[in-house]
Amino acid sequence: MSSINDPISDMLTRIRNASMAGLRVVEMPASILRREIAKILVKQNFVEKFIIVEDGKQGLMKILLRYTEGQPAIQGLVRISTPGRRTYLGTGSLPKVKNGLGIAIISTSKGVLTDYECRAQRVGGEILCKVW
Asked: Which residues contact 72 (CB under 8 A, 6 or more apart)?
């Protein structure tokens, strides 16, 4: 397998492609940050669940996508902060995604949180992506 410069972008692209193709399961190499993002996607009902399959190396993450009446629960995924251009925001400037219908996933000093959790805990951080 080739090395990936931006594992978050790779994860989002795999999920986007699988949901557009109507696939139920998407697989990718596991990592701690990918696991935290997947936990948020499950908690916010964008995906059904995810499992980590141990393979003796870093592990394989399998995500079961959620569909409602044939339509994917995830309508859009956008990467914001990239390795070449990091984007940090304070509590006051956190975005509202699709007027509150979507979420922003933010890496903070208190872990990976949604924009709602960041406002409640009054923390800012690196805005990883937006999901709606």
From this structure: 19, 20, 22, 65, 66
pTM (global) more than 0.90: yes
Question: What does the pLDDT read at residue 2?
Answer: 54
3-state secondary structure of 40: helix
Q: Which helix or strand (DSSP H or E) is residue 79 part of? A: strand 77-79
Pairing of strands 47-53, 77-79: unpaired
Instruction: Assess contact for 7 and 1: CB atoms under 8 A.
Output: no
Q: Determine the average pLDDT of the residues in 100-129.
A: 97
d(CA 33, CA 79): 14
| Closest listed residue to residue 15, CA positions, set 34, 33, 32, 1 | 34
